[in-house]
Amino acid sequence: MIETKRLILRRIQIEDAKDIFEYSSDLENTKYVDFITHKSLDETKEIITKIFIDDFEGKYGIVLKENNKLIGIIEARLKENLVDLGWIINKNYWNKGYCTEAAKEIIELYRQKFNINIFTASFKEGNESSRKVMEKLGFTYKNESFNKNNIKVKNYILV
After folding, report:
1. Which of 26, 46, 62, 141 is deepest in the core (most CB within 10 A)?
2. What is the Cα–Cα distance from 25 to 33, expressed in whole angstroms?
3. d(Cα 65, Cα 121) in Å, to the nearest integer?
4. What is the per-residue pLDDT across 81-115, written as a single tens digit (0 to 9) for each?
């Protein structure tokens, strides 16, 4: 568990299903991520078990300290000498600095724990909120590419 001023970053639990379903079932929230919008709470529970409980490494729930509500997820994928970051935040909590706060802490953790100094992140074209987060964190534009679904993404790097 990691604490920041306003957040707790922790392992995701089955009890988080309702909070995760709240944003994962909303098309506005999922239009820029690489997973299919959730159709039911049971589907969310299955995904939590498969992706976040059975294979939890590098995946953190973003929880508000004030009310213990899970408002998103940040993932740090360790790849040899770098970490690739990704995140999703409930739209009701956009533009409040939560993602930037969580990502700063994860970057610092991986710098200290694994001596990693290269971080990457990408966003689908049009996702200006993620671009702003990356720039606030000090990331710089690297290039454009296409993801596994043949959608144009902009790639950023932090060294």
Report:
1. 62
2. 12
3. 26
4. 899 999 999 999 999 999 999 999 999 999 999 89
| Dihedral angle sign, alpha carbons of residues 86, 139, 149, 152 | positive
- Residue 154 · residue 141 · CB < 8 Å: yes
Output the pTM of the full model.
0.91
Domain boundaries, the chain: 2-158
Answer positive or negative: Cα dihedral of 142, 147, 150, 154.
negative
Calculate the alpha carbon distances from 125 to 32, 74, 129 in Å. 8, 20, 11
Write down the residue that tokens 């720039």 correspond to.
135
**Dihedral (Cα; 53, 31, 141, 110), 10-degree rounding:** -10
Residues 78, 113: Cα–Cα separation, whole Å: 12
